[in-house]
Amino acid sequence: MNDYDEPEVGGPPVGRRIVLGMLGLGAAGVVVGASVQRQVNRTLAPVRGLEGVLPAAGGGFRFYSVTGGVKKPDPQTFRITVKGMVREPRSFGMADLAKLPQTRMTRDFQCVTGWRVPDVGWAGVALPDLLEAVGVGEGAKAIRFTSFDGVYTESLTMDQARRRDVLVATEMLGGPVTHDHGGPVRLYVAPMYGYKSLKWLGGIEVVDRVRSGYWERRGYDVDAWVGRSNGRDDEPT
Prior knowledge:
Blueprint lengths: L15 H17 L1 H11 L34 E6 L5 E4 H6 L3 E8 L5 E11 H8 L7 E6 L5 E5 H4 L4 E7 L2 E2 L9 E4 L11 E7 L30
Parallel strand pairs: 1-10
Antiparallel strand pairs: 1-2, 3-4, 4-7, 5-6, 5-10, 7-8, 7-9
Helix pairs in contact: 1-2
């Protein structure tokens, strides 16, 4: 039984094994030539909206594209909306987020496809502090996140969302979150694989149950603990 309300975005499910296979084929194509690369293209083609798996240099990160590009918002007018089962629905600009308590941490970023960037500096508003600012209503069980381009969604249970190593991140790698990294604001869920750390964060909704996100509807796990941490990580200051 499905645990989300949204209709399927389109195309067949794409799980971790398929993504790993695409990455492996892409690397092999460089070595053995065009015939393998054509197989990669045939693998990608049936997935509507997936325009490529694109590794790129950038502090050890790889950037993957499933759309034709995300338009850059103006940080001066950009706002995140927080709504749903809250006592005080609000929208937050960059200056509003800066006025809330700030949390800093240094944690790894682990992609489910196998690569990892160690010791990344992160800063922003811990999600529990943002929820405190709006007040969580009775009966709330989960948080739903949406990207401002309307493509990506993600969810966390309320217990997961109240961890202090879950950030509404405004800084990473020693500066503002860049557009390629999902700025001006992105989600960072330290104890989970990177697909839970939604880029280009535009909306936060407090809801009555977990809704499967973009990648979960394509075969990924709803709970994405790295190494099955089960909540035992040290919390940041």
